Inverse folding.
């Protein structure tokens, strides 16, 4: 994180894919950095990542008491926007996506945890 700076994070959507097995979370990041800071910061820098602590949004299903993590492909790559190569111009918005297993049909909303910030509660699941 940049000293004296802040970043707005908004949940844009949580949409279950057409096949119903996956769900894509779309977050919008808007950096507000002081003069003299990076003009096009990476998501990695905005959220204060380190090599030992990566950005891992998580979803919590409060109906079934289950936590969802970003899914991985058959080569163990997470299905998400690249935090290092995704840059966002200062005072502008940029989107990032994260893919999760879809919750059961009876789950109509979930909590979105974007560590280290407070969770977003009762975000609708779009089907």
């Amino acid at each position: 994180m940049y000293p004296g700076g802040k970043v707005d994070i908004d949940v844009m959507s949580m949409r279950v894919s057409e096949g119903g097995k996956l769900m894509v979370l779309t977050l919008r990041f808007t950096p507000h950095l002081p003069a003299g800071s990076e003009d096009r910061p990476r998501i990695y820098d905005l959220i204060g990542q380190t090599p030992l602590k990566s950005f891992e949004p998580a979803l919590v299903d409060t109906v079934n008491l289950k936590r969802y993590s970003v899914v991985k492909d058959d080569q163990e790559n997470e299905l998400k926007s690249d935090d290092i190569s995704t840059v966002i111009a200062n005072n502008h918005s940029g989107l990032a996506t994260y893919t999760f297993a879809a919750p059961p049909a009876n789950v109509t909303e979930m909590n979105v945890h974007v560590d280290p910030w407070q969770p977003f509660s009762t975000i609708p699941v779009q089907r």
User: Anything to note?
Assistant: DSSP finds one helix and seven strands in the chain.
